[in-house]
Amino acid sequence: MQRVAPRATARRIPVRQHPRYRRSPERPSACNGQSVITGPPGPEAIEALQADPVDELVVRPRARGLIHLVSAVVAVVAGAALVEVAWTGSASSRAGWAAVIYVAAIVAMFGVSAAYHRVRWTSPSAEKWMMRLDHSVIFVFIAATYTPFAVLALPPDTGAKALTIVWTGAAAGVALKMLWPSAPRWVGVPLYLMLGYVALLFAEALLIGAGFTVVALLVAGAVLYNIGAIFYGVRWPNPWPNTFAHHEFFHAFTVAAAVCHFAAIWLVIR
């Protein structure tokens, strides 16, 4: 008598334990507490996992995005003061516009990051675009940070060259993040760092035009950014995975670095 092989059944796991499950209009809450049949992940899920596979498969730390949320609020207040000083304390409108560009970028970076990391996005499409925006605005912020120094501390020709390099690089970075959001970290992280290292090309001119204190603040900020980038790239340390993990250390170091560069810009503008 021929034996009939048992029918293969789909693996069942609780809804709340499914790494990609979130409540949404397409997933009614009536099924809460029951089980779901897992199938092949859709393209959006694959894209998200490729972008940050570890973060998608673990519980999001409670402090995720909180540092940048507070920083966004502080940036609005401090940025308003910087713009006021730039417009009232300088004989040229160049300082005012440079301050506006920088402040808009720093508020956007912290604000978008806070929104992306704090909000529980129910739409995979919306989350995907927020991830792209979050990663893209970092390039814009880097270029915007260069802008006050290029306009106010460098000779006109040198400043124009610096602005061309950094804003072209920022545009290329934005294109990368928008068109290839699942690019591995070894592609994206070095691009951020390379754009920051452009300052080395103008170090001597910056020292002459801005002074030792400003350059020291820029170097301190660069070191902090690099440490944060390493934490982001290697996903370490994780002392409190459910509260404050490697990504929170990355955010903390970006804020500390931004404070150093804000202080340097203040000295150049005032």
TrEMBL record:
<dbReference type="GO" id="GO:0046872">
    <property type="term" value="F:metal ion binding"/>
</dbReference>
<keyword id="KW-1003">Cell membrane</keyword>
<feature type="region of interest" description="Disordered">
    <location>
        <begin position="1"/>
        <end position="35"/>
    </location>
</feature>
<keyword id="KW-0862">Zinc</keyword>
<keyword id="KW-1133">Transmembrane helix</keyword>
<keyword id="KW-0812">Transmembrane</keyword>
<dbReference type="GO" id="GO:0140911">
    <property type="term" value="F:pore-forming activity"/>
</dbReference>
<keyword id="KW-0479">Metal-binding</keyword>
<feature type="transmembrane region" description="Helical">
    <location>
        <begin position="186"/>
        <end position="207"/>
    </location>
</feature>
<feature type="binding site">
    <location>
        <position position="251"/>
    </location>
    <ligand>
        <name>Zn(2+)</name>
    </ligand>
</feature>
<feature type="binding site">
    <location>
        <position position="117"/>
    </location>
    <ligand>
        <name>Zn(2+)</name>
    </ligand>
</feature>
<dbReference type="InterPro" id="IPR005744">
    <property type="entry name" value="Hy-lIII"/>
</dbReference>
<feature type="binding site">
    <location>
        <position position="247"/>
    </location>
    <ligand>
        <name>Zn(2+)</name>
    </ligand>
</feature>
<dbReference type="InterPro" id="IPR004254">
    <property type="entry name" value="AdipoR/HlyIII-related"/>
</dbReference>
<feature type="transmembrane region" description="Helical">
    <location>
        <begin position="214"/>
        <end position="234"/>
    </location>
</feature>
<dbReference type="Pfam" id="PF03006">
    <property type="entry name" value="HlyIII"/>
</dbReference>
<feature type="compositionally biased region" description="Basic residues">
    <location>
        <begin position="9"/>
        <end position="22"/>
    </location>
</feature>
<protein>
    <submittedName>
        <fullName>Channel protein, hemolysin III family</fullName>
    </submittedName>
</protein>
<feature type="transmembrane region" description="Helical">
    <location>
        <begin position="249"/>
        <end position="269"/>
    </location>
</feature>
<dbReference type="GO" id="GO:0005886">
    <property type="term" value="C:plasma membrane"/>
</dbReference>
<feature type="transmembrane region" description="Helical">
    <location>
        <begin position="136"/>
        <end position="155"/>
    </location>
</feature>
<comment type="similarity">
    <text>Belongs to the UPF0073 (Hly-III) family.</text>
</comment>
<feature type="transmembrane region" description="Helical">
    <location>
        <begin position="65"/>
        <end position="83"/>
    </location>
</feature>
<keyword id="KW-0472">Membrane</keyword>
<feature type="transmembrane region" description="Helical">
    <location>
        <begin position="95"/>
        <end position="116"/>
    </location>
</feature>
